[in-house]
Amino acid sequence: MENNNNHQNPHAIIVAYPLQGHVIPCVHLAMKLASKGFTITFVNTHSIHNQIIEATSNQTAHDHDIFSDALKSGLDIRYKTVSDGFPLEFDRSLNHDQFMAGLLYVFSAHVDRLVGDIVRNSDPQVSCLIADTFFVWSSMISKKYNLINISFWTEPALVFNLYYHWDLLIAHGHFASIDNREDTIDYIPGVRAIEPKNLMSYLQATDTSTIVHKLISKAFEEVKMADFIICNTVQELEPATLSALQEKQPTYAIGPIFPTGFAKSPVATSLWSESECTQWLHNKPPKSVLYVSFGSYAHASKNDIVEIAEGLLLSEVSFIWVLRPDIVSSDETEFLPVGFEENIKGRGLIVTWCCQIEVISHSAIGGFLTHCGWNSILESIWCGVPLLCFPLLTDQFTNRKLAVDDWKIGLNFCDDKNKPITRKLVSDKIHRLMRRKSGDGDDELIKNIKDVKRTLENALSLANGSSERNFHRFINDVKARIIS
Ligand code: UDP
């Protein structure tokens, strides 16, 4: 642990958004801040905590505190849980909108009470609240307890910027009008041009009165009152977008936020039990295995899952496929073609969940069929694994644009999202990704991903990397604000 020779090291409460892709970077942010001398009180919802504990085989060690192993290295991270307003057994995946309504209308009351308790009873005194940008209560709670209001954004700056300028999209008729314009959007500060089909799914929706729209709209009113915004991205990856945001509010690109050494973290974060895959991978030739995962949150149609399964068979490529039980829906658990698991013996491995960073770091992995979650994209870049992009929901369409159109590190899975996926298309695309022959043009993917990987590595370089510098600047600016 770094001792900054500062007796007034800040104490920050971090509240993690209760979804897998937010909890993971939030935990690693907590570790990173604690390693710089911060005291952290980390807050998970009861439900997330419970799911993590149920998924962890070593339950006794972790029963009450997911950070217990990390504490052994001297970090000052305290752990609390809070109700999200629903009973533990409530199916948040099946009742998504009701869950989001809880986060919009009910959760703040629980957080308010907990933050009040922590503020009254903590030594050292709490000075900051770090809340995921999607929370709708951060300014209200930070004002009430006189805390510095820090917003943590876990997606690309481009996505942030588009939500931030939601009102401009409405004013120009690209969003929330009866007949949305379909021409290029070229008026968002810091975004030279973006096609409407690359907007986040919620900004492409025709019904804009949903709970999720209300939540995002409120969250982006809130973030305008944040004292500091920290983003899990890299300045050199999104320079124009970040500069535009930095003109509005103090914004720091501090990514990619990974566990130390990109190794399996001592802190359990997975919501499902991880299957061991490395033994199976050890027997496979280098770069021969396709890793397939659609993340923790999005759903795919049963028809798409069947066509992907048949396409994987047809391709004859080896694969690991992460298939959550609720990938179609938690009340639709029979989705694979009959006999599929027997037909793929030896060549394919199907798991509910795995330690993704461990799997994609393995030399046998040669490609990633991904839903384009932002963490997955960053992790794949870090491992130099090219992408086959199959966005399903939310920011994934915008992330695809960055990966395929801007950085050219991935291929599109479906070129026309209105056309149904067929097994032949699946097999052809997998061949293009996995069986690239030199000279056929796709080796560009490898060259490009190596370049982008270098950008990420440079950003984290202790000797003056941009994210390292930004992280230090952020810490110094927070400390200056505490003193003033
Ligand atoms: N992940 C994992 N095991 C899996 C699938 C995913 O550990 O079997 C992790 C992955 O490494 C990433 C996160 O879960 O850190 C998923 O985040 P992402 O932003 O990619 O997608 P989301 O789940 O938010 O849609």
Keyword list:
single chain, 484 residues, alpha/beta, Rossmann fold, 2 domains, seven-stranded parallel β-sheet, six-stranded parallel β-sheet, 21 helices, globular, disordered N terminus, binds uridine-5'-diphosphate, quercetin 7-O-glucosyltransferase activity, Glycosyltransferase, quercetin 3-O-glucosyltransferase activity, UDP_glycos_trans_CS, glycosyltransferase
Secondary-structure blueprint:
Layout: E1 11-15, H1 20-35, E2 39-45, H2 46-55, H3 59-62, H4 68-71, E3 77-82, H5 96-105, H6 107-121, E4 128-132, H7 138-144, E5 148-153, H8 157-164, H9 166-171, H10 201-204, H11 211-222, E6 228-231, H12 239-248, E7 251-253, H13 278-282, E8 289-293, H14 302-315, E9 318-322, H15 340-343, E10 348-351, H16 356-360, E11 365-370, H17 374-383, E12 387-389, H18 396-406, E13 410-412, H19 423-434, H20 443-460, H21 466-483
Parallel strand pairs: 1-2, 1-4, 2-3, 4-5, 5-6, 6-7, 8-9, 8-11, 9-10, 11-12, 12-13
Helix pairs in contact: 5-11, 14-19
The chain binds uridine-5'-diphosphate.
Count of separate structural domains:
2
- The percentage helix is 40-55%
- Mind summarizing the main beta sheet? 7 strands, parallel
Question: How many strand elements?
Answer: 13
CATH topology of the largest domain: Rossmann fold
Give the distance, in angstroms, between the N- and C-terminal Cα atoms.
27 Å
Count the DSSP helices.
Answer: 21
Largest sheet strand order? 3-2-1-4-5-6-7
Quickly name the level 1 CATH class of the largest domain: Alpha Beta
